[in-house]
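Record passed on here:
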Amino acid sequence: MPIKDYYDDKEWELHYEQRFLFEREQKSIDYIKKLPGAKKILDIGCGDGYFLKGLRDALPARRKVELWGVDYSKSKLRQAKKQGFSTKWCDLEQGLPFPDATFDVVYAAELIEHLFNPDFLLEECHRVLKPKGTIIVSTPNLQAWYNRALFALGIQPIFYEVSTRSPKIGSGALGRIKKGEAPVGHVHVFNKAGLLDMLRAEGFEILDTLGAQFHSLPRPVQFIDRAFNIRPSMASNIIAVAKKGERKATEPAVE
């Protein structure tokens, strides 16, 4: 059985049949709106441009911005381009296809956990950002409040799967309420400390950390989930906002 191709058109449609702005996306838009110098913005992993459309709709008409998106899915990039966004195809493991110091803001949502080399992604984000430019990264939280309980009960935590065939393997009784038949494909999973530490290691200065809820949780616990946003270290999703600083030179490996 082949590993699921998340860039297949049919798989995209299954994920976004009923699309809306998630809380993490809305909070990111609200933050970008407060950045007056943000004139050129890049959405990494833009898909069909849904977030970019939400951002464009939220910004005042008089505010002139240049919105860019990159993605691996060529079919989704065509959809984003039809909406008026500038796009480029990109294999993130090979780097971002832009010159140094191109953007005022780089946005990377629910992406870093899917990459084999997340350090390189942040290195590239640092490179394409203008001096003191802003990066906004969101990712699922390995130490979300419910995952702490699942660990204690010996159940595989949400967001971290051991199988490439089924998300229910290792999930115990939780498997009865898990949606979908395909694993989400996370390679690296972060807690708050790990994400912020990696950003600092790549030359970023942390400005803010926000929590956001997980939209797929059962309704009875969504209120609890929202309440934990006040503590990003325990929230379902972590949104990290950072400023481009000086990147330390990488020390050569010891022979």
Summary: The chain is about 30% helix and 20% strand. The CA atoms of residues 144 and 234 lie 4 Å apart. Strands lie at 40-44, 66-71, 86-89, 103-109, 129-140, 204-212, 237-244.
